[in-house]
Design brief:
elongated; two-stranded parallel sheet; mainly alpha
């Protein structure tokens, strides 16, 4: 289905350079700004799932791993 487009640079490339201090959110219709990610048309559930997974990974990193690199 259309969720397969989550593996394409047009979608996953949106995550690069986002700030880690605020969770990412999914928006429909284009025009994402700040910590917003444009949903894949017809695959909003996949877009939200991927974005939620990224948010959880960032949360785990900042709460558990950050600062341990040099220990």
């Amino acid at each position: 289905g259309l969720g397969a487009n989550s593996t394409k640079p047009k979608f996953y490339g949106q995550f690069k350079g986002k700030m880690l201090d605020t969770p990412l959110t999914v928006v429909k219709g284009g025009g994402a700004k700040g910590n917003e990610i444009d949903a894949i048309t017809g695959a909003t559930i996949t877009s939200k799932g991927v974005t939620g997974g990224v948010n959880e990974a960032v949360k785990f990193y900042t709460s558990t791993l950050k600062g341990r690199e040099n220990k």
